[in-house]
Amino acid sequence: MLKIKEILHQQAPNTREVDFYVPVKVEFPENDDGKSELLHYRLMNTDASFLELSVNVATGKFTSITLVSVNAIENAPCTIEDAFPPMETGNPIVDMETSFEKPVTTAHMDISLYWGNRCIYALWGQERAMRQIALGGVRLLIDAQNDLAGVVFHGFSEAEWEEVGAGVLCAMQNAQPVGG
Description:
mainly beta, 6-stranded mixed sheet, 15 strands, 43% strand
């Protein structure tokens, strides 16, 4: 799993792209030194929903967080946010020594996806989140061992939310579980 080494208390300028086919991609261009390799951590569940986190080798910072596909999603419970710790702003540094086995690491995990209140929640940690870091249009949930335990995409405009919703609903109608 991705382990967070430290959190710099700074903003990370970002851009968000919303698309019918790839629901949401948030990029952090200043976290990429432009010269170093990017490592990709892919999280996939049994429904073939797929999240990718890209990290610059030199900076150890996230360069993009992308919800590539959603093939199953549930309505978020009204109390979902109650379980999250207070939010702080920061720019996490990933522990590069323990987080990546190769340039593209794929982890098949029990990721639960929820949506509501113009947010998409991707949660996979078994432990309760102890920190919630606001990184532009994404909030990162970090557990007591400093492992990334979830991602929340938030702040969608009404038009963005409608486009995301149309794409997700279409994908779910055509989805086949892994091995199905």
